[in-house]
Amino acid sequence: MTKKIVVLPGDGIGPEIVAEAVKVLKKLAEQGLDISFEHGLIGGAAYDETGVPLPNETLEMAKKADAILLGAVGGYKWESLDISVRPEKGLLGIRSELNLFANLRPAILYPQLADASTLKADVVAGLDLMIVRELTGGIYFGQPRGIRTLENGEKEGFNTLVYKESEISRIGKVAFDIAAKRQGRLCSVDKANVLESTELWRETMTSLSTNYPDIELSHMYVDNAAMQLVRAPKQFDVMVTTNMFGDILSDCASMLTGSIGMLPSASLDENSKGMYEPIHGSAPDIAGQNIANPLATILSAAMMLRYTLNEAEMADRVEQAVSKVLDQGLRTADIFSEGMKKVSTSEMGDAVLAAL
Ligand code: IPM
Ligand code: MG
């Protein structure tokens, strides 16, 4: 049966990079992949058209889809809007409405890019790390939240970090299962020395581990984890953590690989329906210039093939094509170094197509 892909380009460089990933998927469609595309609005682009960052029409389309390909949301233009209609709300809304609680963020260093990392090549060479971030709970969604005025007239901002056992164990299971298919090592990251909600996180991960005797579970405080990621990142196989810690640690991990422009992600629900997006933002400063790196989005399409469309072989081929264009010395500006050939967004996409 034809699989329905909803394409949500979003803002900034979103439309440019998504176009390249769609080109790749269309090429695979010519080779037998049975997919169809539908486009929708999200983020600032949706706000400008409809007054909300996540129109109902988009949400309904996404609910009916098999998978969603998203670019990025946000930009200077919308920064002064009320938080309830900011582009980011559209992204958080679709994650939450579709129950996409499991966010997989692999940080893999392509050997060709070892020199592009700000870390020494021997610290990052061979890096292959998977961050599993809880995506629909924690402080991003906890109630109560807001900004209130105290009796003395001073304003106070507040948010709530809250996790139910069931939320912790369902993300835990995803992470243990992923670790089982890899090197079998899972590091759960928390701040259990200070925050009760993550004390429960640690307890729940520990009791879950009795079901996974072959997985080596360790625990680490988030401050130490941030330090270890830049000190000796290869000690990690799979990391599992809360929504906010995962947001921060995955940006940190991305720089190990040379550029945030290289990292894809998958956000999955209980049935492996998924939304796929690069982990980088909308980069409004370079939007419309055809210089952004489309590889994270193309690699996100590869994750879609693997996790939702059950086309592992095609996913492998896309990943190999990316590796091949890097071998050819093609580099967008963010990963450019002396002696390489600088290419535009669309030239990079074309090169991946050719390598397919
Ligand atoms: C991410 C982004 C989002 C997040 C923003 C844009 C809301 O930083 O996907 O990592 O914080 O989750
Ligand atoms: Mg982030």
TrEMBL record:
Keywords: Amino-acid biosynthesis, Branched-chain amino acid biosynthesis, Cytoplasm, Leucine biosynthesis, Magnesium, Manganese, Metal-binding, NAD, Oxidoreductase. Substrate binds at R95, R105, R133, D223. Binds 1 Mg(2+) or Mn(2+) ion per subunit. Coiled coil: none annotated. Pfam families: Iso_dh. The keyword Amino-acid biosynthesis applies. It is found in: Cytoplasm. Its cofactor is Mn(2+); Mg(2+). Residues 4-352 form the Isopropylmalate dehydrogenase-like domain. It catalyses: (2R,3S)-3-isopropylmalate + NAD(+) = 4-methyl-2-oxopentanoate + CO2 + NADH. The keyword Repeat does not apply. Catalyzes the oxidation of 3-carboxy-2-hydroxy-4-methylpentanoate (3-isopropylmalate) to 3-carboxy-4-methyl-2-oxopentanoate. The product decarboxylates to 4-methyl-2 oxopentanoate. This is 3-isopropylmalate dehydrogenase. The gene is leuB.
